[in-house]
Amino acid sequence: MTGDRLPAAAGMRAALNARVAKIFDHASDTRSLFLSLTSGKHLRFIPGQFISIAIPLGDETRSRPYSIASDPEDRGPFEICFNRVEGGRGVGWMFERRVGDTIDFSGPFGAFTIDRAPAAEAGFIAEATAIAPIRPMLKRALASSSREAAPPKIHLIYAAPDREHILYAAELGELARTAPNFSYQTVIAPAEKIYDRLSELAQARWVIGDADRTRQFYICGVGKGVIRLRDLLRGAGYERRAVHYEQW
Ligand SMILES: Cc1cc2nc3c(=O)[nH]c(=O)nc-3n(C[C@H](O)[C@H](O)[C@H](O)COP(=O)(O)OP(=O)(O)OC[C@H]3O[C@@H](n4cnc5c(N)ncnc54)[C@H](O)[C@@H]3O)c2cc1C
Questions:
Q1: CB-based contacts of 232: which residues, under 8 Å, 6+ apart?
Q2: Ligand 1 pocket: which residues have CB below 6 Å?
Q3: Which residues in the chain come in under a pLDDT of 50?
Q4: For a pocket test of ligand 1, which of 63, 91, 109 has the largest count of ligand atoms closer than 8 A to its C-beta?
Q5: CATH fold of 122-247, please?
Q6: Which of 56, 95, 162, 187 lies 20 to 30 Å from 203 when distance is taken between CA atoms?
Q7: CATH architecture label of 10-109
């Protein structure tokens, strides 16, 4: 479910076909597929959007959304990143794909996006694989804000059950080193405590520790914890439309 409405025409997009060009394992249960359109064209999308993959499950075909983890500017294959889910048959099929296999999908879809620097200071919150849409959003926000005289600050709080599931760590470290307006913190907490920790940190930083209610927020994660974070920030006086979220 996404927190923002999908474009009305979303469901009418034509089916596309991509070939698996490369596989990268971040961890034993977390993988990226790099996909090239079989048409040879480049997939155009806005940072934060997802594709809907057609997954054959028994007699039926189900579609499952996967966020695009790479940048629209990247030439070559685009990336999706996913993790195993207990009892998850759809993602089980995704793990069976091999280099050279083809995948049917439609999209890109979704309004949980950023196409330019946020107008005000922005907070990003993600857990584990849900950094996937946030990664290109952050990079777009930082690239376009670097042209401004006083770029808005951008802070990421990124949680995972262990260090191995903090994805793209080297890249995030490099961004924090080179972009003066970007900072980030990681949180390691047991899976069942992740949203407690994220809520405490969001509360300390943006509810108690900050009086300016013009901040923008982008939250992505799995389950009801995302809604808890959304409600915490909206309840603290941030505008409804300033708290963007995507719940998997
Ligand atoms: C807009 C959108 C974008 C998404 N992008 C991604 C992505 O980039 N990478 C990705 O791994 N998943 C993503 N998902 C989730 C993905 O579509 C599937 O739901 C997930 O892979 C499990 O599918 P399944 O068919 O195996 O199990 P399902 O039967 O569909 O799901 C089983 C349960 O797992 C939960 N779940 C969903 N995703 C995860 C997860 N990553 N980790 C743990 N539990 C989960 C669901 O809430 C559900 O309760 C996205 C979902 C949405 C709505």
A1: 199, 202, 203, 207
A2: 1-2, 50, 64-67, 80-83, 85, 88-91, 110, 129, 132, 222-223, 246, 248
A3: 2-12
A4: 91
A5: Rossmann fold (3.40.50)
A6: 162
A7: Beta Barrel (2.40)
